[in-house]
């Protein structure tokens, strides 16, 4: 019954013992044969293409052997934290942006400044630069977007919105109309928002605020997010969103079972890097949309273009040179790009992007085109989460659920969001 | 002369005993005492697992006192223990009494009722529970037949905890088996004598079964309380690791896990673990003291 936790805890504590016992470092020789480990999360498709890229890397770099460790997102960070504690972390790791700064802030990451990033949008690189150096290298460009199912729009007799002019009021009306007019059990106008901080980030940017400031403080005040929770509450009451119970149940459902992937929601939130998988799972045409804006102008939608994941190398790796070589290969080699394609988002290196464009599947090509379309109007890069800010996701989910179940008013939820975020980042 | 030989033999025997004990002893030190000492040390530190631990004295204790989510998790956990354990034991006892009547196919029924105990804490059952009590699950399908639109049992904060308590009650097989064994120990002549004196079934149960069984009830109670305080898997799976909706299934251990692994706050999580140990110790001690007044020892 409690075995799972006992095993985890014993692992950590044993690891902590070992770490304290400690070990010294060896003098590195950049060309010495090395066996490194490489870990990422993701679906089977990602495991397949990444392993292929790794094998190509080994062929190009005799003397470096790479052990691949693909795993699921579920439990990824538990595993990673335990491995870091035991000084047993893989040498190259895929990590989310908010965790990159969390890890870097605690001095756990190697400075990757020596890796060539000249063909990468400097803003993607800058954003994970700390006083301790370059914490990560961007692995793929994406954007948090809305995804629409045209079939449900047709069924409801509601015209597809023009995403360069639509407003939140339009969105609210459309969601409600679709639910009402389709009148089918389990079919809803829109997936709930407020379960991902990416959406909140867009909402705040539209008011000229940010989630975090450059110096790691909270960049907004309670009233700035009250409207967000109010809209959630109103749309839930009108039926534009799924029932609170359904929303809760889907929080932990895999992507393939989400409402948009199973043809039940007309609108949903996703990352462009997920688009190809979503289309595959849905088995029907889906469309990428900008967020609604307050003013009805595309530029005011304040879409964000960012790297959805980064490559990192632990500070305590014993194979610094080999690990950096692999990261460099994954990001800068057209050969790797042709194997990886759009799996982690649009390739960050512009030369690689041009080299692989012709090979992308239609959905991935659509994502690339969409990113390029919104890039000119996208907002400036906002500061990423400080140490402790990685908890925002969980904090926000709780407030959303409290509002949906009527346990908190929008104003209360907004205040708690601030209070809990502040408590989480204080340490 | 004779004495030295015996002592030498004894010494050799002792040594052999220690050698045989060694694997157990190594295990005890390495995977129980060592980590426990380590976690005691960590509970006085700020430890992110990414950097070495930092001594912070009693900071974590102070945080325990002011952490509202922790207090909520204690409420949830106490509700689970104080409602779930008595309910489960009552069901276990009731079924044991019925089975003890010596019906046909007893072995079969015993096995069937015991099965959930073997499975109850497993991930598979928790996943199944999630399906059965989901808003489009089996329970609501059945309710729909009679025209009732059931809530999302595990996704509505008003019913989520009850669903998990129900899962706990359902695993009544283990205490039931122990009750059955206890019931077999009660001499038949007591019941015969009582029947002759005109005692009805209810009176026989109250005056004979309950007192005679009280040591067994006590044993089950202690065991279940200790186990229930540490319940983790059900809540973890059913709520998808979130303790939601709205923290309504945020068990103490689940919060400990979130603080430790999610928020990389292992020092605080260690302090929480020691708080749980303290709570369980107090509960067990109180139970032992109280047992003097209600547990009947035949002698």
Structure overview:
The complex is a heterodimer of chains A (427) and B (299). Chain A is of the alpha/beta class. Chain A has 17 helices and ten strands. Chain A folds into two domains: 179 residues, D-Maltodextrin-Binding Protein, domain 2 (3-Layer(aba) Sandwich), CATH 3.40.190; 208 residues, D-Maltodextrin-Binding Protein, domain 2, CATH 3.40.190. In chain A, strands 1, 2, 3, 6, 7, 8, 9 and 10 form an eight-stranded mixed beta sheet that branches. Chain B has two domains: 48 residues; 232 residues, MetI-like (MetI-like fold). Helix content of chain B is 74%, strand content 1%. Chain B contains 13 helices and two strands, in the order αββαααααααααααα. A two-stranded antiparallel sheet of chain B has the order 1-2. In chain B, β1 and β2 form a beta hairpin. In chain B, α4 crosses α8. Chain B is globular and about 75 Å long. Chain B starts with a helix and ends in a 5-residue tail after the last helix. Classes of the chains: A alpha/beta (427), B mainly alpha (299). Chains A and B meet through α1, α3, α10 and α16 of A and α1, α11 and α12 of B.
């Amino acid at each position: 019954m409690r075995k799972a936790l006992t095993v985890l805890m014993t692992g950590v504590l044993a690891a902590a013992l070992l770490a304290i016992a400690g070990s010294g470092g060896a003098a590195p020789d950049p060309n010495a044969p090395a066996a490194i480990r490489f870990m990422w999360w993701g679906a089977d498709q990602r495991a397949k293409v990444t392993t292929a890229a790794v094998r190509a890397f080994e062929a190009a770099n005799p003397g470096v052997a790479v052990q691949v460790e693909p795993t699921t997102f579920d439990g990824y960070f538990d595993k990673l934290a335990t491995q870091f504690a035991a000084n047993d972390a893989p040498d190259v790791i895929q990590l989310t942006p908010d965790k990159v700064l969390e890890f870097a802030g605690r001095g756990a990451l190697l400075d990757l400044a020596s890796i060539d990033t000249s063909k990468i949008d400097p803003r993607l690189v800058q954003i994970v630069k700390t006083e301790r150096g370059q914490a990560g290298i961007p692995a793929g460009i994406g954007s948090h977007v809305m995804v629409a199912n045209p079939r449900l729009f047709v069924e409801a007799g509601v015209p597809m919105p023009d995403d360069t002019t639509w407003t939140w009021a339009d969105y609210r009306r459309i969601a409600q109309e679709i639910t009402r007019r389709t009148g089918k059990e389990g079919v809803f106008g829109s997936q709930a928002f407020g379960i991902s901080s990416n959406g909140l980030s867009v909402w705040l940017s539209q008011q000229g605020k940010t989630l975090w400031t450059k110096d790691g403080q909270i960049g907004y005040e309670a009233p700035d997010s009250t409207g967000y929770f109010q809209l959630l509450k109103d749309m839930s009451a009108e039926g534009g969103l799924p029932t609170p119970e359904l929303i809760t149940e889907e929080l932990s459902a895999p992507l393939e079972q989400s409402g948009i992937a199973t043809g039940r929601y007309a609108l949903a939130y996703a990352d462009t890097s997920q688009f190809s998988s979503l289309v595959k799972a849905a088995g029907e045409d889906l469309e990428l949309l900008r967020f609604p804006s307050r003013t009805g102008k595309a530029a005011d939608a304040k879409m964000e273009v960012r790297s959805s994941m980064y490559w990192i190398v632990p500070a305590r790796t014993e194979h610094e040179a080999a690990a950096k070589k692999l990261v460099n290969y994954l990001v800068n080699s057209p050969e790797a790009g042709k194997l990886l394609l759009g799996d982690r988002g649009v390739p960050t290196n512009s030369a690689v992007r041009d080299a692989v464009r012709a090979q992308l599947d239609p959905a991935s090509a659509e994502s690339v085109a969409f990113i390029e379309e919104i890039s000119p109007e996208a907002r400036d890069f906002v500061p990423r989460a400080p140490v402790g800010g990685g908890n925002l996701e969980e904090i926000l989910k709780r407030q959303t659920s409290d509002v949906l179940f009527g346990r908190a008013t929008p104003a209360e939820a907004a205040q708690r969001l601030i209070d809990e975020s502040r408590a989480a980042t204080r340490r | 002369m004779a004495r030295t030989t015996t002592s030498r033999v004894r010494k050799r025997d002792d040594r052999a005993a220690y050698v045989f004990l060694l694997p157990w002893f190594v295990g005890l030190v390495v995977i129980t005492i060592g980590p426990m000492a380590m976690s005691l040390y960590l509970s006085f530190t700020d430890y992110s697992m990414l950097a070495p631990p930092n001594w912070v004295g009693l900071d974590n204790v102070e945080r325990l006192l002011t952490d509202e989510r922790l207090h909520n998790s204690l409420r949830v956990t106490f509700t689970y223990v104080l409602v779930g354990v008595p309910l489960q034991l009552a069901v276990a006892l009731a079924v044991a009494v019925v089975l003890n009547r010596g019906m046909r196919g007893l072995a079969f029924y015993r096995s069937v009722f015991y099965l959930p105990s073997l499975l109850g804490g497993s991930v598979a059952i928790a996943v199944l529970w999630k399906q059965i009590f989901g808003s489009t699950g089996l329970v609501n399908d059945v309710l729909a037949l009679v025209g009732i639109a059931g809530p999302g049992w595990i996704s509505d904060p008003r019913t989520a905890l009850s669903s998990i308590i129900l899962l706990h009650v359902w695993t009544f097989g283990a205490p039931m088996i122990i009750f059955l064994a206890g019931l077999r120990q009660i001499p038949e002549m007591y019941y015969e004598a009582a029947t002759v004196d005109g005692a009805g079934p209810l009176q026989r149960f109250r005056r004979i079964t309950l007192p005679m069984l009280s040591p067994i009830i006590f044993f089950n109670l202690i065991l279940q309380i200790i186990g229930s305080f540490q319940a983790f898997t059900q809540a973890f799976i059913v709520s998808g690791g979130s303790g939601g909706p709205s923290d309504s299934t945020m068990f103490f251990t689940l919060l400990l896990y979130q603080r430790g692994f999610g928020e990389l706050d292992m020092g605080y999580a260690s302090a929480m673990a020691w708080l749980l140990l303290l709570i369980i110790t107090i509960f067990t001690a109180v139970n032992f003291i109280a047992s003097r007044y209600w547990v009947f020892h035949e002698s």
